[in-house]
C-alpha cells in the first residue's frame, strides 16, 4: 500500500512538473489565500503580506527584528509573521497548496523546493532578480544551487539567503581532560566517541540523530567515510554502494553504545539542547546551532570544525543546505512581497540574520562583514568550501519526491537500523530503489 500511494503521489507530481517546465515567467500572483496554481496579481505594493518562517521558534526573534526594520523603511506595508517549525513546514505547504491559504512569501529550503515548484505554487523570480538591487550581489554557487534544486532549466524559484554547512562540534574541555586529539579524522572521531563514554555516569562520546532529519546526517556520515564523491553512477544511486553500507553499519552501531538511548527520537532541537546541557563529547549539526552553543557553554568549552576527513585525507560532504525565500504565485500583492524578499536578502538584513544563525550569508557584501571572522565555525566552514580540501556530493534536491524519500518514507526505517531490527543493507537498498524510480521518472519527464 505504501508503495502504491508513493507512486500515485509521484505521478501527480510528474503531471504538475510537466506544466511547470512548460511555463514562461509571468507576473501573476495571489493574496495568500489560494492554492497551488492559483493566479493572483501584482497588487498595489502596499497593504499587508503574509510571511511563513520555515524555522519558526528557532529564528523568530531575528525575523521580527528584520520585519520591524522593513516596516520602518516601508511604512505602507505590514508583514504578518507566521512561525512554523521546521519539522512541520513541508506538510503545511502541501496542505495549503491543495486546500488554499498559501502565504505571499515563505521560507523554502533547497530540499523542498522542487516538490513545491512542481505543484505550480511558486512564482519564477529570475526576471525580478535580474532587475533588482540584488543582481550581482548574491553568491553565485548559492544561486546556482537553488536553480538546480528548483528542477527547472530556465526558472529560478527562490532567492537564496544562507548556506548551512555540516559541522562537527566537540567539547574541548572533555577532550583535553581525556588526552584526546581533535577529531579531524573519522578514526579519531570513533576513538574519542568510545573513550569519552561512561554510561554509568551518564557521560557519552556522541549524540546521534535518530528523530526527524536523521537521514541527511546519516548520509553525511556515510559518504564522509566511504569517500564516494558522486550520488549517481549513471542512472543508479550510489547510496547502497558496499562502501556506504559498511560506513552506515559502523555509524549506526554507535547508538546506545556511546550515545544516549533518547537519541532514537531526538530531532535537532532536542539533540542540541541535550548536548548543550550535558556531558556529551561530540555533536554533528550545522552552523545554525553555533550561537546556541555559545550561550550554553561559552566559546572556551567547545569548537566547531569541518566534518572529519576519510582515509584518503580528503573531506567528502553531502551538499550544503541552501535556504531561501519563495514568492508564491497565488499572492495578490506580489509587488509588496518582492520588496520584502529584496530587503531580507540585502546586505544589512542578510548579515543580521546569518550572524544570528551562524550561517554563511548569500549576500556577498554581508559575507565580508567582521562577524564572519569572529564566528570560528562559520569561518572554517567557508574556508573548507573554498580551499580545495572538500568534495561536495550533490544531493538530488531537484527530484520532486526527494524530501519525502529522505524524510517521511525512511526515517522510521532508520530507527529500525539503530535498534538492530533492520540491516543497513536492507535500509539502503530500500532507499536506493525509491531513488532510482524517482530519477527514472524525472529523466522521462525531462526528455
SSE layout and pairings?
Elements: H1 2-22, E1 47-53, H2 60-73, E2 77-83, H3 89-99, E3 105-107, H4 110-117, H5 126-131, H6 140-149, E4 159-163, E5 166-171, H7 172-178, H8 186-195, E6 204-207, H9 214-226, E7 232-233, E8 236-237, H10 242-252, H11 268-277, E9 280-286, H12 290-297, E10 302-305, E11 315-318, E12 322-327, H13 334-344, H14 347-357, E13 360-361, H15 370-374, H16 376-386, E14 390-393, H17 402-405, H18 411-419, H19 424-446
Helix pairs in contact: 1-19, 2-14, 9-10, 11-12
The dominant shape is: globular
* Cα-to-Cα separation, first versus last residue: 29 Å
The count of helical stretches stands at 19
Structural class, judged by helices and strands?
alpha/beta
Radius of gyration: 22 Å
Q: Fraction of residues in helices? A: 40-55%
Report mean pLDDT, rounded to a whole number. Answer: 89
Based on DSSP secondary structure assignment, what is the total number of beta strands? 14
Share of β-strand residues: 5-15%
Largest sheet: 6 strands, mixed
Strand order of the largest sheet: 2-1-3-12-4-13
Q: Flag low-confidence runs.
A: 1-32
Keywords: Cell membrane, Lipoprotein, Membrane, Palmitate, Signal
Organism: Streptomyces cinnabarinus
Protein name: Sugar ABC transporter substrate-binding protein
InterPro entries: Bact_solute-bd_prot1 (IPR050490), SBP (IPR006059)
